[in-house]
Amino acid sequence: MAEEEAILGFLQNNDEIPHSGQFAVEHELDHEEVKNVIKSLQAFRYIEAKLIKREFYDLTDEGKKYAAEGSPEFHFFSAVPEEGTISMDDLKRMLDPWVFNVGSKQAPKKKWVAMGQQVSRTVEHVEDKVKEMLLQIQQGLELDEESLKSLKTRRLIILTEKWTGYSEVKKGPNYAPKRRSFATDLTRENLQNWEELEFKEYNFNAKGQPVDAGHLHPLLKVRKQFKDIFCQMGFEEMPTNNFVESSFWNFDALFQPQQHPARDSHDTFFLKAPLTTRELPEDYVARVKQVHESGGYGSRGYNYEWKREEANKNLLRTHTTAVSSRMLYALAKGPFTPKKYFSIDRVFRNEAVDRTHLAEFHQIEGLICDRGLTLGDLIGVLQEFFSRLGMSKLRFKPAYNPYTEPSMEIFSYHDKIGWLEIGNSGMFRPEMLQPMGLPEDVRVIAWGLSLERPTMILYETENIRELFGHKVNLATIKQSRICRIGIEAA
Ligand code: PHE
């Protein structure tokens, strides 16, 4: 760098650089660069320097008038006779209005005159300092702080430019004609030549380089926690690897009537290709048709004409309860064994997208299938499950699902938010379980919730689109902390 060489070189033969601006001009260097180099050399104590600041002012119109004609207080003083007095009225008549108005305030303030009905001089002679100062500024001379302040408050001058530079640039304790370069790395060459080299000191306070590695999305972190809790409670994971499902497994098997509003294309994404499912278990389909149309197993059914074409329609599953129905049907085929199942996977709903809704989300689903289970078991399991998540204050509200009876919405108390709906639950209806062929005394308790809701609460995300979809900010994902839900409860 030319600037650095010039400065260090100059100081080798000279005591000081009196003024950085002048130095830059004389050496044909850029003053900004010279200043940067001085700052850096000063930090390493190669040199010492004093920062200087200068401000440039212009005269306002009023300032120009005073500079040309003299200040109003000077004219006011001059109008007062050397001996004796003069009345204010006479002064007013004699003087220009601007001289009278300003002068009658400034002159007594400076203790040049005594004021009353009659005005008299209190000093013999005055100097028009204001005029002098204004002329100095016009000539580009520097004034002291106080003078500048007095002129600024009277709005006689205005700041036009600020200038900084250095003065008294001298050798510092570490002065050398050339900046030493330090060895920074422990390379083979550096170690072999260590005697000639000067190593840079370690900075143990430096932050390390950010680790360049893959990062888990918050939803995956929270999913892992839920998965662990299910596994600790002895649940098995259900295979949820097909997003496309038939209406039969998604709705009909769950005793959801074919006119149910959820089955409307406004709420469900139906598939165009393949439009329909290829295969369904025919004997089971016949029993489902029967329970919808005329009931059985102690039920009156819905009393409508059940249509096979409706059941065949393919869709993107609207809940993972579709998987539960497949699993329970498979379970009913063999000799009965109690089961605890869970899944966490994607579901799709044809919803208007807003800050808390997306057309797809992840559903967490749990179910227990055993002989003689009761609503008390469901409440107990939910308490156990949610307290492991750190949510032990729960409330239940009666609700309606076509496939559960009784059904309960689950509310949890959140310190910052209050009571919050976190899930839905219930006991699967006999109209759903019996046609599958499960023994009559087998009961299934089940619940479902979204993965996004707890994730948004845990990571304080206000807009779901920041969490999921094309607006996700990768930096946020990288910086998201680890998820340790349920720690307080443990
Ligand atoms: N399928 C329900 C939903 O989509 C959740 C649920 C699962 C409710 C199991 C009751 C029993 O909200």
List segments where confidence is low: pLDDT < 50 over at least 5 consecutive residues.
none
Mean pLDDT, nearest integer? 92
CATH architecture of the largest domain: 2-Layer Sandwich
Largest sheet: 7 strands, mixed
The N- and C-terminal alpha carbons lie at a distance of 62 Å
Q: Give a list of the ligands.
A: phenylalanine
Q: What is the share of helical residues?
A: 25-40%
Give the total of beta strands. Answer: 15
CATH domain fold name of the largest domain:
BirA Bifunctional Protein, domain 2
Q: Please list the strands of the largest sheet in the order they lie side by side.
A: 7-10-11-15-14-13-12
In CATH, what is the class of the largest domain?
A: Alpha Beta
Helix and strand content put the structural class at alpha+beta
Describe the global form.
elongated
The tally of structural domains comes to 3
CATH superfamily of the largest domain: Bira Bifunctional Protein, Domain 2
Question: Hey, roughly how much beta strand do the residues contain?
Answer: 15-25%
Based on CA atoms alone, the radius of gyration comes out at 44 Å
Main location: cytoplasm
EC number: 6.1.1.20
Pfam family, one: tRNA-synt_2d
Keywords: Aminoacyl-tRNA synthetase, ATP-binding, Cytoplasm, Ligase, Magnesium, Metal-binding, Nucleotide-binding, Protein biosynthesis
